[in-house]
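From the shared-data thread, chain only:
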Amino acid sequence: MNNFARHTRRLAVALIFVLASLSAGAQSKMIKNVFRLLPTPLVYGITDATKDSMLKGKTYYPSSNDSESVLAFNYGESPFVKDYMYISMSYETSQRASGMIELRGFEMEGKKLIIVSKSGGVEGVNYQQNDISAFLYDGNNRLSPYKAKIFPDWSENLFLKSGVPDSIKKVILNNSNLTFNFSNKNVALSLNSYFLLNNQEYRKWMKGDEIKYTWTGKQFIAGSVSFSD
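Structure, as tokens:
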């Protein structure tokens, strides 16, 4: 799949999310409060006043924009998870870089565990998971950092079959743009490489391109690796 097709697919998915959100109106107030509470440096430097504006559906354009570089930030929801939202970063000019910050809440011992996931790069070239941080939200407009380990470790061979030749392994690892997706019920870690998935020489040595995690109330438990298509 070429970059244009991939971009079109992402726009279609985003449109489905928007239409479903408008019809369902199910997003929780909690996740919006969390967005307001998050430190400005953690959310693209977006100020409190701008956060309120974005939550009303307005696109944020930084004052540093000019005719050759128009950067835009947008807020969105998921039709599948109420304690979820994202902030997307993209250019309306020719620059190809983009990014996304996802916020997701999980029930945890009378509180909410909040995951803040940041990904970015260039689609189809090098788009990766950049950072994941966790907080506890106590329901009284207070966030506190959560340091305990919540995701199990994984090896670089997670998506590889045994016996893979070193030359093939190197190509697969170099094209493994691993990113989390928190917008569905089960969190997924995906390989995100159309190059690998559409090339049988490499695909035949892969167990899959995605692994899903189940939240237990204390930690995430990994499922088996499978192909998403």
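The CA atoms of residues 167 and 202 lie 10 Å apart.
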